[in-house]
Amino acid sequence: MASDHQNKEEGRIPSESSVSFGFRRVSEAEKRKLVDEHFGSIATKYDWMNTVLSFGLHYLWKRIAVRMSGIKAGDVVLDVCGGTADLALLAADLVSTTGRVFVYDINRTMMRVGQAKVAASHLSERVRFVQGDAERISFPDGSFDAVVVGFGIRNFVHLQEGLKEMHRVLKRGGSFTCLEFSRPDPAWFRALYHFYSFVIMPLAGSILAGTRKAYTYLPESIRLFPLPDELSTMLQDIGFSKIIYKRLTNGIAVVHRAEKG
Questions:
Q1: Are 95 and 74 in contact (CB under 8 A)?
Q2: Three-state SS at 144
Q3: Element housing 240 (H / E)
Q4: What pLDDT is stored for residue 6 in this prediction?
Q5: What is the structure's pLDDT at 101?
Q6: Which residues make beta-bridge pairs with 246?
Q7: Collapsing DSSP states into helix, strand and coil, what is residue 145?
Q8: What's the rounded Cα separation, in Å, for the pair 176 and 230?
Q9: How confident is the model at residue 243, as a pLDDT?
Q10: Which among 81, 117, 173, 254 could disulfide-bond with 182, CB atoms 3.0 to 4.6 Å apart, if both were Cys?
């Protein structure tokens, strides 16, 4: 039997290749476990910490993303990695009484936070929750008019597989909208953001959320995520069309929008 060393020497991939979890290389199974533990550990403070660390800007970014999605009355929408349901509630306001929004997330603790938030709103009849893996979405082909995902796809084990699944469940002509962190510009601002991400964020996570580890993983995962042009190419290769992106706050966050042709 060939060893891992021999596999590497001969250019073969071992039976379970390693993937990135921040700057660490781990097995696929370990990444799934670590991501689940990560969100389980911060779920109850997730929204509050997002507000503190983004100075409230994440609410603006989410409104821009949902507005760019083109969601309209009567649409059926899938909020992938929807967890605490911020995007779902914004979408539910647009689909009106004739539409529906499904929050799809693998982490039950995050969904419990979202369920409580939705239950306290006037939109609860329009929102449903489904637990599942975004790389194997448990809905038939062509089920949705729109798919939205906010700050979630960095955590996929296989990014392309998740993107293919979101393409699959869209109706022809349906929209895909992704809000994700990215590398900001110009260079001086990027250096300042780098210091904030790798020094201030972990310190704040330790003091305010009781976990330095979770807020060390966050900036590391951002640094490894594809840049906007690279993600646009991936979307095109999968079969999306009319691909555009919009940088927000000097590129700290980016909204990608595309359609299923």
A1: yes
A2: strand
A3: strand 240-248
A4: 40
A5: 98
A6: 255
A7: strand
A8: 16
A9: 98
A10: 254
Output the pTM of the full model: 0.90
* Fold classified for 41-184+217-260: Rossmann fold (3.40.50)
Residues 6+ apart with CB under 8 A from 256: 176, 177, 178, 180, 228, 231, 232, 235, 243, 244, 245
Residue-level pLDDT at 17: 80
Low-confidence ranges of the chain (pLDDT < 70): 1-16
- The two tokens of residue 54 are 């983004």
Question: What values do phi and psi take at 99, rounded to 5?
Answer: -110, 175
Cβ-Cβ contacts under 8 Å for 213 (sequence gap 6 or more) = 38, 205
Q: Is 240 exposed, middle or buried (0-12, 13-18, 19+ CB in 10 A)?
A: buried
Which stretches of 2-83 are assigned E, i.e. beta strand? Answer: 18-21, 24-27, 76-80
CA 6 to chain centre: 36
Question: Could you say which DSSP state residue 261 is in?
Answer: -
Q: Which of 113, 70, 119 is nearest to 91 (CA)?
A: 70
Mutual orientation of helices 46-53 and 108-119 as an angle, nearest 10°? 80
Q: What's the one-letter identity of residue 27?
A: S
**pLDDT at position 136:** 97
Q: How far is CA 133 from CA 29, 98, 103, 138, 152, in A?
A: 13, 27, 12, 8, 12
Pairing mode, strands 240-248 and 253-260: antiparallel
